[in-house]
């Protein structure tokens, strides 16, 4: 009789193992997204052609310090209802660096060196509120969208320089639309 009960329990033990594995995987994914990663939706065309409206990206904030060229998501408060709560932009300069823009030729300079920007949609012609070279204070970053002439970014006084403490994280890769994972 005991052999019969043992034979009857074996199919359920396999099911228990499968459910246990799935539950462990779900807990691990939830843990990773609570403490290390988050997803963010892109709204608007300011990062075109790198990112488009409705793209979804994965951010990492774990041991993150912004570097020039990083695509970041910020949540710096502002008083303008026209500015989104979160912005997806590219870091152009960090604390201690000076940004200057030649709007006639559409070239952005950091510390007197022209940036090599193969990711932008078109040369930077839109001045916004930017009228002089700006030295970024420590603890801040200067950000711009890749679609320079259609981006509200650090050139606009409503956004201004971004305090590093308001950066949610660095964009690692795109998850939507599916199949277009790489971002520049």
Defining traits:
184 residues; seven-stranded antiparallel sheet; 2 domains
Overview of this structure, please?
The structure is a single chain. With 184 residues, the protein is an alpha+beta fold. It contains 1 helix and 11 strands, in the order αβββββββββββ. β5 and β6 (107-110) form a beta hairpin. It folds into 2 domains: 1-35; 63-168, Ribbon (Umud Fragment, subunit A). The model has no long low-confidence stretch (mean pLDDT 85). It is 18% helix and 28% strand.
Based on Cα principal axes, name the global outline.
elongated
Fourth CATH level, the homologous superfamily of the largest domain? Umud Fragment, subunit A
Percent helix: 10-25%
Architecture of the largest domain in CATH?
Ribbon
CATH overall fold name of the largest domain: Umud Fragment, subunit A
In short:
With 184 residues, the protein is an alpha+beta fold.
Task: Please give the structural blueprint.
Elements: H1 2-35, E1 37-41, E2 56-60, E3 71-74, E4 87-94, E5 98-102, E6 107-110, E7 113-114, E8 134-135, E9 140-144, E10 162-163, E11 167-176
Antiparallel strand pairs: 1-2, 2-11, 3-4, 3-11, 4-9, 5-6, 5-8, 6-7, 9-10
């Amino acid at each position: 009789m005991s052999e019969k009960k043992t034979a009857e329990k074996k199919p359920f033990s396999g099911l228990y193992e499968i459910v246990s594995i799935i539950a462990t995987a779900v807990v691990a994914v939830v843990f990773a997204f609570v403490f290390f990663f988050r997803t963010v939706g892109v709204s608007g065309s300011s990062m075109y052609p790198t990112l488009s409206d409705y793209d979804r990206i994965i951010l990492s904030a774990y041991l993150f310090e912004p570097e020039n060229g990083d695509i970041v998501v910020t949540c710096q408060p502002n008083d303008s209802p026209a500015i989104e709560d979160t912005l997806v932009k590219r870091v152009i300069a960090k604390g201690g660096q000076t940004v200057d823009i030649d709007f006639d030729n559409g070239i952005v300079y950091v510390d007197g060196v022209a940036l090599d920007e193969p990711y932008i949609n078109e040369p930077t012609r839109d001045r916004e509120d930017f009228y002089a070279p700006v030295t970024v204070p420590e603890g801040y970053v200067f950000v711009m969208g890749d679609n320079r002439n259609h981006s509200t970014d650090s050139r606009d006084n409503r956004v201004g320089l971004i305090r590093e403490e308001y950066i949610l994280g660095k964009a690692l890769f795109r998850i939507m639309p599916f199949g277009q994972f790489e971002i520049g």
